[in-house]
């Protein structure tokens, strides 16, 4: 072969061709501005991993519902691109939407229909053929089987919310959005729904959860994303987030109560509780030194004795509040 023969390079990918997404959901440069000028989302980038439970947290008006609506194709973004299992939610809406089940905040169902008819009809809306065995399994998994012939009007609020979840699962989606799924649900039923969600994740369904109940995210999520003022301000593994941003508290039950903190302890982040009988020390777990050993030595030097000692990690709620307060 002549030395000057050119080797043809592989054809470049067309600029509008979709690169394989790293996750089951890929959000790139997403913004949404409404007609009145309000910008609900600002250049959001987000990757949701296949098979995870992802908790999206944020205060009221932060943009959670707008983000979910855009991913589900219910509103068109002003700018940006969204892929659901490789399908563009704008250009290939039907294929993308078939991959997604959505449980919205508001209960919107025909109250005069039966549970069975409501869930079966929802499956047909997505072009799926009838499958009574699948509908039966969904209703049994959600403890709705004994209510299959009941009209929705006769169900409790918690049962109606379960019907909403059954509707979302009727077409066998790979992605499930739960927008405040346990709002108004009693604690016992809420824990039952947590078990159901874990079971769905075990079957391969990716769960995206928004919630006002921080303990829900703390209990269930693999990763946590925080949105505020239309921007994603943090995405982190839940355990890593709590380790990185959480503080620990050391509580000491004193033998004799203190009226005030001694001046010799002014250099510590200390507080008095329980009418001066409990001394509370907050320290950073990521610091080079926690200061606990030095504090105990100084307490001994002052003659302050204690009967019990306990440590507590910051909760996800405390971390969330501190993050949102820092947002400009």
TrEMBL record:
Designated name of the protein: ABC-2 type transport system ATP-binding protein
Native source organism of the sequence: Amphiplicatus metriothermophilus
Domain ABC transporter: from-to ranges: 25-254
Keyword Metal-binding: no
Pfam families reported in the protein's UniProt record: ABC_tran
CDD domains given in the database record: ABC_DR_subfamily_A
Molecular function terms from GO: ATP binding; ATP hydrolysis activity
SUPFAM superfamilies noted in UniProt: P-loop containing nucleoside triphosphate hydrolases (SSF52540)
InterPro entries: AAA+_ATPase, ABC_transporter-like_ATP-bd, ABC_transporter-like_CS, ABC_transporter_ATP-binding, P-loop_NTPase
Keywords: ATP-binding, Nucleotide-binding, Transport
Ranges for region Disordered: 1-22
UniProt feature coiled coil, ranges: none
């Amino acid at each position: 072969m002549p030395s000057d023969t050119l080797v043809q390079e592989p054809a470049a990918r067309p600029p509008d061709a979709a690169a394989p997404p790293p996750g089951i959901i890929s959000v790139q440069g997403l913004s949404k501005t409404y007609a009145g000028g309000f910008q609900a989302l600002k250049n959001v980038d987000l990757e949701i991993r296949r098979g995870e439970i992802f908790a999206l947290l944020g205060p009221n008006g932060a943009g959670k519902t707008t983000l979910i609506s855009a991913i589900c194709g219910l509103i068109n973004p002003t700018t940006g691109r969204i892929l659901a299992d490789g399908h563009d939610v704008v250009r290939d809406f039907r294929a993308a939407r078939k991959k997604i089940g959505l449980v919205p905040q508001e209960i919107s169902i025909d109250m005069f229909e039966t549970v069975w008819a409501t869930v079966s009809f929802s499956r047909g809306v997505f072009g799926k053929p009838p499958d009574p065995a699948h509908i039966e399994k969904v209703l049994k998994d959600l403890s709705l089987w004994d209510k299959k012939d009941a009209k929705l009007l006769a169900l409790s609020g918690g049962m109606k919310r379960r019907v909403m979840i059954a509707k979302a699962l009727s077409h066998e989606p790979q992605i499930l959005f739960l927008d405040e799924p346990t709002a108004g649900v009693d604690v016992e039923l809420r824990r039952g729904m947590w078990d159901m969600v874990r079971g769905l994740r075990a079957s391969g369904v990716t769960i995206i959860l928004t919630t006002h109940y921080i303990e829900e995210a703390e209990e269930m999520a693999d990763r946590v994303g925080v949105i505020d003022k239309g921007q994603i301000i943090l995405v982190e593994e839940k355990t890593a987030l709590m380790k990185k941003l959480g503080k620990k508290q050391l509580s000491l039950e004193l033998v004799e109560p203190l009226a005030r903190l001694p001046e010799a302890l002014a250099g510590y982040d200390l507080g008095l509780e329980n009418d001066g009988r409990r001394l509370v020390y907050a320290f950073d777990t990521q610091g080079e030194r926690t200061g606990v050993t030095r504090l105990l030595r100084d307490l001994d030097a002052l003659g302050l004795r204690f009967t019990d000692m306990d440590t507590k990690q910051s909760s996800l709620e405390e971390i969330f509040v501190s993050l949102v307060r820092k947002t400009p």
